[in-house]
Amino acid sequence: MPATRVSDDDSVDPFLRKTAAWSWRLLVVGGAIVALLWLVSRLEVIVVPVALATMLAALLLPAVDWLDRRGAPRGGAVALILLGGFAIFGGILTFVVSQFVSGLPGLVEQVTYSIDGLRRWLVDGPAHLSREQIDNAGDTAIKALRDNQEQLTTGALSTAATLTELVTGALLVLFTLIFLLHGGRNIYSFVTKIVPSHARERVRDAGRAGFGSLIGYVRATALVALVDAVGIGTGLAIMGIPLALPLASLVFLGAFIPLVGAVVTGFLAVVVALLAKGVVYAAITLGLIIAVQQLEAHILQPLVMGRAVSIHPLAIVLAISAGAVLAGIVGALLSVPLVAFLNSAIRVLVADDPAEEAAELEENDDGIVFNAEPDVVPPKRDNS
């Protein structure tokens, strides 16, 4: 009886065969992700403004839809919301800058007084340093500044180039935002035609669910940031801390970077309070910031976020860390909204009943339906 021939595959342990099969597939997926990240980094000047415009569209779209449903022309509603937003932002920015200019001399005077007090303490206190040692330390700092003047000049030129990129990016954000608010749904419907017909509606439902969660995230984050800024700014103003309003504005902007932004801007407020008013006021400022953040963490976040955009804290920390490593501050800013979008989009994409999962997400997000646009006929399900 002839011996049964054993193939090479049969001679390998089944567990090892499965591991090898998974390994090369994961390598292919990993390579595709690396290629995508490389492409995004090369097109950063385009990708970042489009991403920021998408976030702004998520914030302003409900207001545009509200005007649209009440009979206003779509273009007029977009123009009104944008002009109103520019007017509010410009007014706040002008007020903050004027407050900063008027409050800066007082802060400089108080900081100078604090430095003089520190110098006296170093001479007369336990350190018993001589004035000659302190003066030598100051001279060393000035010499280091002069020695690095060329690098500072180069940095200034780099800053000028960065300013040009910022202006270009701002214009791209504006144009992208206008088109997204006016006809973003039609753009999305057109783009998704590249998807095979049998999966097209599932992909469209996933994108709508993800954008609905993005709307909820941006709106909730703006509300939380406003409460943080008002609470901390009011406390700083009552204590007479210089630059209370500019510091409150920084707290508002920092709140859009979860966990990290509030800590950094709050620490800056504590430093200003320490330099201007001393240790007692710095401790009170620290207590105020902790109290406001506890209010945010235990009341505001659970109340306004909802299940549709609820993300585990570990996922937030990992997303912010990865975003900061890959793209700095911009990456930290965009990472959590991206996770919020993908969280809902993937849930709908892999669900047994995408329509039911999408309806559940819309219900959890205060009834926001991304697909509802009165002046645009919803695209029909096509199999072409």
Automatic annotation (TrEMBL):
Top-level taxon in the UniProt lineage: Bacteria
The keyword Transport belongs to this UniProt entry's keyword annotation: yes
Keywords: Cell membrane, Membrane, Transmembrane, Transmembrane helix, Transport
Organism: Mycolicibacterium aromaticivorans JS19b1 = JCM 16368
Protein name, UniProt field: Membrane protein
Protein family according to the UniProt entry: Belongs to the autoinducer-2 exporter (AI-2E) (TC 2.A.86) family.
Lineage summary: Bacteria, Bacillati, Actinomycetota, Actinomycetes, Mycobacteriales
Chain intervals for the UniProt region annotation (Disordered): 360-384
GO cellular component: plasma membrane
